[in-house]
């Protein structure tokens, strides 16, 4: 969202301010509304248009591309621009997109009834986080406005612990959902990423913590400090939750919640508490698998930069049938569970629905007729619902009994014997419980059906909304109107008879009402009781006293009927509003059911398997034949891969570019996310622990978000991982260190891998092109190597996309460049340079006992006789390394240690073959630390003095070792 120059266009336009003393009453009213809404662009209703004046008009004209006109009145000329009220949505959307908040100054009094100036008031301030108009909201999404407040120790309320620093509250004004949490700044800012509000308001003391707009997608601004005041916040919360200070443990959350509700009320026209915000839910971020924004992005849960925008995990899983389910799926996926029983319970339900095709399809059919009850009830409760909304509510309620029956039938269409027993309950507790939560709300359904016309008009003030037979008075008024009209309809024939004028006609105009028309040629036959109403060119129009009386009767009855209908409608709407909480609870159950049915449909369609979930704190990740749920949809022949990652292990993954390293790492992480969300996983079998946190750090250029991709960012993400990850975490490190010079990058990668292994004990997948990192397997107990290989035949590279034990041999960087279409001269020249480099490194390393740092030649799986270094391995030809199925099977059945012992490269730290083909024994005598120092010494950047010092240091080390 771009930031407009709000100085001149929000609040009171300078041109109006300058003329303030002499404005007409109407512009003066405009000026008052502007002055009261300094942070908004005021649109002022004048008849059928929303108008803005002076500088604000210039903005509206420019942003909305509407004509700038001029208003002239007794006090001067003012630029003016307007948008039509009955088609305002696209213009409001454009203004929101351009970063404006818009205050709607509506006429709140009937212009015809008003004596003098029509009363106007701001009925709504439309902001990115608080829009409620369906036209401006995407269906099935959440739209939060969030508030951030910081607590201070002195204000600590009911406990002795020091206050955590930040409180976060978010409310979806369209549905009434309200979330509140508190914690240390890192946790809460991570949570903010997850909630992903459209708008963030910050308290006076929290500004320093709040991430800037550039980091997130929300519009951030400060809001009235008084709303964040503890007492004010407490008072604000009172109508929403009883005893707020007891409900909220920390000041920071109480103040954030109070402020966000104050802001929400302000945007809804300051009409007092928003009654449909009945679910203020306080939660602990640790209650869900923590996925920060970086993880959400790099796992492409909701956004995909590489493939089409819709190729995301969400998109794969989204077979939901209604907006409620879509919104719920997003919520589940943003916050996977960490409670093993709750996870298994969802798996039970998904399994049952997957088994029972008929029931699943019946549920999908029923839910596809459900409207967005959460937003509907929001409108009902705000008094903004029209008759069509109530009919939509009715249609949804109407489907519930059938849905319940289908759910019970779930037990009888099973292929297994348990289901065939005729038991009329669902098989699993989860679905039984869900069925019980499906409140039929029969009385509300009947009320709406009795009261509201089947196909009512949108306007609720013009009649036609209430059904015949619902209210006796209304029926009588309608009968009067109908009889009157019938009488008029017959009048023409009877008057022709009476007067003998065959051309006599009876008609009606809006202005003059009913008339009897006689042409000039017949005027002599007009009876005495005809009174002249209007003279036309060739005729005269008349009325009779009886016609006038009937007309008044008809009009009076119609007017009173309209008013009565409106009253009755509001009564029905208020009655429905009384059941807000029950309707919200029903919406909740429908949403859950839709997601579970969707997950089941996806599992069946894509051949997912139920993962075994274990609470064993030492259990690692074991996946057989795992696939990447998104990539498998676009790859014709996706190659499944196994994963066996003991708890706390570090798998160093090497392999050529494009061989599938990133895909593999992500598919492992996605299996964890899917399983903990309640979904089955794309694999043949899986046994997964319940993890608490998932971290990812992917290479800089893989993660370009709005030009933010820098080495600095890479390092700050790494920092977060190194601070926070633990044995309950899964960490993906993809080419860490790539964003800087090779020497530094390699050093950082190595040090980070060691730290993760030694200090954190986090289960880690580390993809790298730094082959030196494969040494880690020999040096660290829980580290091991995996690699992807490729074959080359007649110069063509084929990627096998198959993971195998051991380290890789080749990068095929030049080949990948060629595949990508890099012009032949550049490719050829690259080959030459690689060859030169290789030659140089060969001669530089020739005879050196320490040149053999390369893990490739230690690789039991590699058939490579070449001597690739870190840059020079592109041509180290890996002639079709055999990947036999037996080794793949071993992969899952052998213990890691046993496996490593079987792999000579993993038992002998010094076994790395030198790039010059030196004997391994010659390097075996060199202590590893000396070898590391020598290897990492960047001669191009070393001064003679530094070289001497380094040599002296090495000598000391050797002497010490001796
Ligand atoms: N298991 C698989 N089966 C089939 N195709 C795959 C598989 N894994 C990856 N691919 C395809 O290979 C391509 C490269 O995969 P990926 O990005 O994972 O490679 P990489 O080794 O991480 O590459 P780089 O080192 O260049 O980042 C992807 O476009 C993907 O479609």
TrEMBL record:
It comes from the Archaea. Pfam families: MutS_I, MutS_II, MutS_III, MutS_IV, MutS_V. Residues 835-929 are annotated as: Disordered. Residues 853-885 have a biased composition (Acidic residues). GO terms for biological process: mismatch repair. Residues 729-745 form the DNA mismatch repair proteins mutS family domain. Keywords: ATP-binding, DNA damage, DNA repair, DNA-binding, Nucleotide-binding. ATP binds at residues 655-662. One of its GO terms (molecular function) is ATP-dependent DNA damage sensor activity. Belongs to the DNA mismatch repair MutS family. NCBIfam families: mutS1 (TIGR01070), PRK05399.1 (NF003810). This protein is involved in the repair of mismatches in DNA. It is possible that it carries out the mismatch recognition step. This protein has a weak ATPase activity. PANTHER family: DNA MISMATCH REPAIR PROTEIN MSH1, MITOCHONDRIAL (PTHR11361:SF34), DNA MISMATCH REPAIR PROTEIN MUTS FAMILY MEMBER (PTHR11361). HAMAP family: MutS. This is DNA mismatch repair protein MutS. It comes from Halorubrum alkaliphilum. The gene is mutS.
């Amino acid at each position: 969202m771009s930031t407009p120059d709000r100085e001149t266009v929000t609040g009171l336009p300078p041109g109006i301010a300058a003329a303030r003393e002499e404005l007409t009453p109407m512009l003066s009213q405009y000026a008052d509304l502007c002055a009261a809404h300094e942070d908004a662009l005021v649109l002022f209703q004048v008849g059928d248009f929303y108008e803005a004046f002076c500088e604000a008009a210039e903005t509206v004209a420019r942003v909305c591309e509407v004509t700038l006109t001029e208003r002239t009145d007794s006090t001067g000329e003012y630029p003016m621009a307007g948008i039509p009220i009955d088609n305002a949505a696209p213009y409001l959307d454009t203004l929101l997109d351009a970063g404006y908040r818009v205050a709607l100054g509506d006429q709140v009094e009937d212009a015809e009834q008003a004596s003098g100036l029509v009363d106007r008031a701001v009925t709504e301030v439309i902001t990115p986080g608080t829009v409620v108009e369906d036209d401006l909201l995407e269906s099935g999404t959440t739209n939060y406005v969030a508030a951030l407040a910081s607590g201070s120790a002195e204000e600590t309320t009911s406990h002795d612990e020091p206050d955590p620093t930040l409180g976060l509250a978010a409310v979806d004004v369209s549905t009434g959902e309200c979330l509140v949490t508190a914690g240390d700044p890192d946790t809460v800012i991570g949570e903010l990423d997850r909630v992903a509000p459209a708008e963030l308001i910050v308290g006076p003391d929290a500004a320093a913590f709040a991430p800037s707009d550039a980091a997130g997608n929300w519009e951030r601004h400060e809001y009235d400090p008084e709303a964040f005041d503890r007492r004010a916040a407490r008072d604000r919360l009172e109508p929403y939750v009883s005893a707020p200070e007891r409900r909220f443990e920390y000041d920071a959350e109480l103040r954030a919640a109070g402020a966000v509700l104050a802001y929400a009320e302000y945007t809804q026209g300051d009409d007092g508490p928003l009654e449909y915000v009945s679910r203020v839910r306080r939660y602990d971020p640790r209650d869900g698998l923590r996925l920060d924004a970086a993880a959400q992005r790099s796992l492409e849960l909701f956004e995909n930069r590489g493939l089409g925008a819709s190729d995301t995990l969400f998109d794969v899983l989204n077979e939901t049938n209604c907006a409620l389910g879509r919104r719920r799926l997003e919520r589940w996926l943003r916050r996977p569970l960490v409670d093993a029983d709750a996870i298994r319970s969802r798996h039970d339900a998904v399994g049952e629905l997957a088994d029972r095709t008929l029931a699943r399809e019946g549920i999908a059919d029923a839910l596809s007729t459900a409207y967005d009850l959460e937003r509907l009830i929001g409108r009902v409760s705000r008094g903004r619902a029209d008759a069509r909304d109530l009919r939509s509510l009715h249609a949804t309620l109407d489907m519930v009994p059938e849905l319940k029956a289908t759910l019970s039938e779930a037990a009888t269409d099973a292929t297994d014997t348990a289901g065939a027993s005729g038991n009329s309950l669902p098989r699993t507790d989860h679905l039984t419980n869900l069925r019980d939560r499906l409140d039929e709300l029969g009385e509300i359904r009947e009320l709406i059906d009795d009261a509201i016309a089947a196909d009512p008009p949108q306007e609720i003030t013009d009649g036609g909304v209430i059904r015949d037979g619902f209210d006796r008075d209304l029926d009588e008024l309608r009968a009067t109107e109908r009889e009157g009209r019938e009488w008029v309809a017959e009048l023409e024939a009877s008057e022709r008879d009476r007067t003998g004028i065959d051309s006599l006609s009876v008609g009606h105009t809006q202005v003059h009402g009913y008339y009897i028309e006689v042409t000039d040629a017949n005027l002599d036959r007009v009876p005495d009781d005809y009174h002249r109403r209007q003279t036309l060119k060739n005729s005269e129009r008349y009325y009779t006293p009886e016609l006038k009386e009937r007309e008044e009767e008809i009009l009076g009855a119609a007017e009173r009927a309209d008013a009565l209908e409106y009253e009755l409608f509001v009564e029905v709407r208020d009655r429905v509003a009384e059941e807000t909480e029950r309707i919200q609870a029903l919406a909740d159950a429908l949403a859950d059911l839709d997601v579970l049915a969707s997950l089941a449909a996806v599992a069946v369609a894509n051949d997912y398997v139920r993962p075994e979930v274990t609470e064993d704190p030492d259990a690692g990740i074991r996946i057989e034949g795992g696939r990447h749920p998104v990539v498998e949809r676009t790859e014709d022949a996706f190659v499944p891969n196994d994963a066996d990652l003991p708890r706390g292990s570090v798998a160093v993954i090497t392999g050529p570019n494009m061989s599938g390293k990133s895909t593999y790492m992500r598919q492992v992480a996605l299996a964890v996310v899917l399983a903990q969300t309640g979904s089955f996983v794309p694999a043949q079998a899986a046994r997964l622990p319940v993890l608490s946190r998932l971290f990812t750090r992917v290479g800089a250029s893989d993660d370009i978000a709005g030009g933010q991709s820098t080495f600095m960012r890479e390092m700050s993400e790494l920092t977060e991982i190194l601070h926070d990850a633990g044995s309950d975490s899964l960490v993906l490190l993809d080419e860490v260190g790539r964003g800087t010079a090779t020497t530094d990058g390699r050093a950082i990668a190595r040090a980070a891998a060691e730290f993760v292994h030694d200090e954190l004990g986090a289960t880690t997948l580390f993809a790298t092109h730094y082959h030196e990192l494969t040494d880690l397997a020999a040096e660290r107990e829980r580290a091991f190597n995996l690699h992807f290989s490729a074959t080359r035949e007649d110069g063509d590279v084929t990627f096998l996309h198959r993971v195998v034990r051991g380290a890789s041999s080749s990068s095929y960087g030049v080949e990948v460049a060629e595949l990508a279409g890099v012009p032949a001269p550049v490719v050829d020249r690259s080959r030459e340079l690689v060859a030169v480099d290789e030659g140089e490194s060969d001669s530089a390393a020739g005879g050196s006992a320490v040149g053999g740092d390369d893990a490739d030649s230690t690789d039991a799986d590699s058939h490579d006789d070449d001597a690739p270094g870190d840059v020079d391995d592109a041509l180290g030809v890996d002639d079709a390394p055999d990947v036999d199925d037996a080794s793949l099977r071993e992969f899952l059945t052998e213990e890691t240690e046993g496996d490593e012992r079987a792999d000579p490269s993993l038992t002998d730290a010094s076994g790395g073959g030198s790039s010059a083909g030196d004997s391994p024994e010659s390097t075996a005598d060199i202590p590893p630390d000396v070898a590391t120092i020598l290897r990492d010494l960047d001669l191009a950047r070393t001064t003679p003095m530094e070289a001497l010092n380094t040599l002296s240091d090495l000598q000391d080390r050797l002497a010490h070792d001796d």
